Amino acid sequence: MLIDLRSDTVTKPTPAMREAMFNAEVGDDVLGDDPTVLALEEKTARLFGMEAALFCTSGTLTNQLAIRTHTRPGDDVICDQLSHVYLYEGGGIAVNALASVSLVQGERGKLTPELVREHIQPDDIHKPITRLVCLENTVNKGGGCYYTVPEIAAIRQVCDEYGLKLHLDGARLFNALIETGETPESYGPLFDSISICLSKGLGCPVGSLLVGKTDFIKQARRFRKLMGGGWRQAGSLAAAGIYALDHHINRLKLDHSRARKIGQLIGQLPEVKAVFPVETNIVIFQLSENILATDYVELLAQKGILAVTFGKHLVRFVTHLDFTDEQLLSLEEKLKEGIVSRS
Ligand SMILES: *Cc1c(COP(=O)(O)O)cnc(C)c1O
Asked: In what residue span(s) does the Aromatic amino acid beta-eliminating lyase/threonine aldolase domain sit (predicted)?
């Protein structure tokens, strides 16, 4: 039995989701008349209490469109050193937005109002103009840790004080919400834009949404076309999204309890030095200095367990819709047998 914990993106659409996709009414989304895309965009905007939404191929595209739309060339973006927008989007802040970055060393990828304040550029011709703050929730590189609404509200206050925009990379936002019990509606008023991914924990084959004000989304739609991201009969993919928002949010709790269980098991392995606190569906652990993550991932693969390296001695597991209790039992057995041979 292959146990694939490389990412929550590896899920395949369920039979019911495929059925919804098969039956979707479609049109031409570039011409603005795909009814299922329009329905998904409206549903998502309403969910967050925001005005409009834009359905896109990926979270990288929605993040990059947000940064491009909020900033002008030469502006400065504040984000954490571990953030996806900085580390994993091909240098897109520089390439797409022609903007610079002030990197914050937060706590496991999380910013605080004080850290944001410290990184705002002074009014000085030597300096770029601070325009935008980006948060990530949950934080991938932070081991899936999350913000609460009061923490974000305090950051929003600093942004208001300095006239800064606030964007959320919410690729795994629903994982945070299911833990805190907070609602999407409480997020809308805090942000100028929110990006969510349907292709992670929610189990869609493809798709992300950018949510914001009508004028902002209109401009982002122009940039999406400019970057070649306009798509035509995208309604089948949007149907998967609608299905996922209706059926796949509450079950994220299961992914979290399975991840916590994995965290406990991993913590007992002699070669494991530390496990990041498991708060959602991500388990990151640190190996002892004599074991490289690349070698360890290879040993895991030989046992039919797929994971990714997350640093020289760091390995990441992510639980998801296609990871079952049966697989968890099998994983438990394999871990108890041991991964590193002790000779
Ligand atoms: C996966 C992810 C994204 C978007 O990735 P795509 O593969 O482009 O959809 C953005 N932010 C975070 C934190 C992610 O984990």
From this structure: 4-288
What is the residue range of 100's domain? 15-247
Mean pLDDT value across residues 91-101: 98
Regarding the beta carbon of 171 and ligand 1, being less than 6 Å apart is answered: yes
- Gap between the Cα atoms of 112 and 107, Å rounded: 9
* Cβ contacts of 35-40, under 8 Å, gap ≥ 24: 35/235, 36/235, 36/236, 36/238, 36/239, 36/242, 37/234, 37/235, 37/238, 39/238, 39/242, 40/209, 40/238, 40/239, 40/241, 40/242, 40/245
Number of domains in the chain: 2
The whole-number pLDDT of residue 341 equals 79
- Confirm whether 216 is domain-assigned: yes
**Do 169 and 39 lie in a common domain?**
yes
The CB of 169 under 6 Å from ligand 1? The reply is yes
How close is the Cα of 320 to the center of ligand 1, in Å? 15
pTM comes to: 0.97
Would you give the DSSP letter of residue 110? Answer: B
**Is 152 found in the same domain as 87?**
yes
Each residue's pLDDT tens digit, 34-89 = 999 999 999 999 999 999 999 999 999 999 999 999 999 999 999 999 999 999 99
Residue 282 has pLDDT above 80, yes or no: yes
Please work out whether the CB of residue 60 comes within 6 Å of at least one atom of ligand 1. yes
